Amino acid sequence: MISLNVNGVQHTLDIDPSTPLLYALRNDLELHGAKFGCGMGQCGACTAIVDGEPTFSCVVPVGAIGTRPVRTLESLGTPDHPGPLQKAFVKHQAAQCGYCIAGMIMRAQSLLERNPHPTEEALRAHMEPNLCRCGTHMRILAAIREVAGLPEPQAHPASAQPL
Ligand code: FES
Ligand code: FES
Questions:
Q1: Could you give the 3-state DSSP secondary structure of residue 121?
Q2: CA of 35, nearest ligand number
Q3: For the CA atoms of 94, 95, 96, 98, what is the dihedral angle to 10 degrees?
Q4: pLDDT tens profile 36-62
């Protein structure tokens, strides 16, 4: 049996300890925010927050979580009552296909909890591991900047670079 604390709720799951956390979230707990992208720790679609750290849930076995609390997108808000990042992502129309967005929001959430007002450089460095195939990085950054109270950078060639 595996004991997992997810979004503040304690669960006991009859699954193999080697099961990836992502599978437990999606298949056993029916939390479908985190997505399966690469399954290899290379895209960030599956990002959840484990004990405050953004974590690629596709490559972490549930047996390695222990008592550390896990949080998923579902903990941040609902369609009727979205959280600040969720609102900003909608406002800035940061999603194209949307597949990366839950992971992007969870990665951003982990940063803003530690540092509510990061620098532009810190924001970009923190978000760098998460990829967006649709290329909406600039809108994603704009949404996070709004919540972080960061100004939009002046337009120059470097600002057009993807994360
Ligand atoms: Fe986990 Fe790509 S699905 S990093
Ligand atoms: Fe499609 Fe990011 S919006 S992958």
A1: helix
A2: 1
A3: 160
A4: 999 999 999 999 999 999 999 999 999
Q: Which ligand 1 atom sits nearest the alpha carbon of residue 41?
A: 4
Q: What is the CATH number of the domain that holds 107?
A: 3.10.20.30
Atom of ligand 2 nearest to the CA of 134: 1
* Residue 41 covered by a domain: yes
Q: How many domains does the chain have?
A: 1
Token pair, residue 148, equals 């972080």
Distance between CA atoms of residues 125 and 141, nearest Å: 11
- Rounded Cα gap, residues 127 and 106, in angstroms: 10
Which ligand is closest in space to the CA of residue 97? 2
Measured CA angle at 22 (ends 19, 23), to 5 deg: 55
- Please give the order of strands across the beta sheet that includes 53-56: 9-13, 2-6, 70-71, 47-50, 53-56
Please tell me the predicted confidence (pLDDT) of residue 118: 97
